[in-house]
Structures are given as C-alpha cells and as structure tokens.
Design goal:
This protein is an alpha+beta fold and 158 residues long. It contains four helices and three strands, in the order αββααβα. A hairpin with a 3-residue loop joins β1 and β2 (43-50). The protein starts with 5 loop residues before the first helix and ends in a 9-residue tail after the last helix.
Length: 158
C-alpha cells in the first residue's frame, strides 16, 4: 500500500512521540516549579504549566487554544490525505507542526494546560516544550519550501 506524503506522517509521529515522552518524564521526575540547571544561568530544565500558546503567548486562553489545536490538526491531516503530494520541505514542515499541535492539544484537552520545561535563561526566554520547538522548526521548513517555490524574477527586455 502506498502512503502519500510519507515524510509528513513520519515527522508528525516522531514530533508527537518525543513531545509526549519528554513531558511524561518531566512530570514524573520534577515537582511543579522545580528547576535543574544543566548550564547554570544559561539553560535549565524547569517544570512549569502554561495556559497559553507557544512560548507563553496568549496566557490564560486555553479554552479557544484547545479548539485551535484541534482545528489546525484536522486541516493538516486533511491536507496530507486529500491534497497533492507535497514537496519534502512541505511534508517535513507540516508534519512537525502537526506533531506539535497534537502534543500541545492533548495537554490542553486532558490537563487544561501545557507542560513546559525548556528554560533558556541567558536570553530570558519564556519556558517552552518540545512541541513548541517542533512547531517553530516546522515553520522554518515551510519558509524554506516557499523560498524554493519563489520564481526567479525575469528581466524585462527593453
């Protein structure tokens, strides 16, 4: 059986699995608010909860964010199933976004918040998680895909 957009499905499965495994490990290993400095003052693992979107944007908007996660996930699944065969960068980008959206979406539906733990203190960045990283990486992949699709400008003859 041929699976259309195979890289999309592989990327989404890997992103989702890594996100859920790391969150499970953090919840089982840390107390809420506990931090472990891996590179003191630069990078810590800090267990926090987040009722907002990626990187704590829109904090407290969990109700509509859970439905947004579901909607984005359904649209991406439909695109991969019923749309055209995507380029490799598109498949990778959309797959990573789907894996991250499902990972955070499940947290929002089941827990009412998202588990975050990646804490870059050197730049005073919001604590985030693996799903947020995959979503951001997916967006970069889509930007690369769009740059590859941009036609070169042709010179007009005078």
């Amino acid at each position: 059986m041929y699976l259309k957009n195979r890289l999309f499905w592989i990327a989404s499965f890997i992103a989702f699995s890594l996100d859920q495994l790391t969150k499970y490990w953090v919840v089982q290993t840390f107390s809420l608010g506990q931090t472990l400095p891996l590179l003191p003052g630069i990078f810590h693992l800090t267990y926090v909860t987040n009722t907002g979107a990626a990187f704590s944007l829109l904090s407290g908007k969990v109700e509509w964010l859970r439905w947004l996660s579901l909607g984005v996930s359904l649209v991406l699944i439909a695109l991969a199933l019923f749309g055209p065969v995507l380029t490799l960068w598109d498949q990778l980008g959309y797959g990573l976004i789907l894996g991250g959206a499902i990972g955070n979406g499940i947290d929002r539906f089941v827990l009412g918040y998202v588990v975050d733990f990646l804490d870059f203190r050197l730049i005073n960045f919001a604590v985030f998680n693996v799903a947020d990283s995959f979503i951001s990486t997916g967006i970069v992949c889509l930007l690369i895909a769009s740059l590859q699709k941009t036609p070169t400008s042709s010179r007009r003859s005078r």
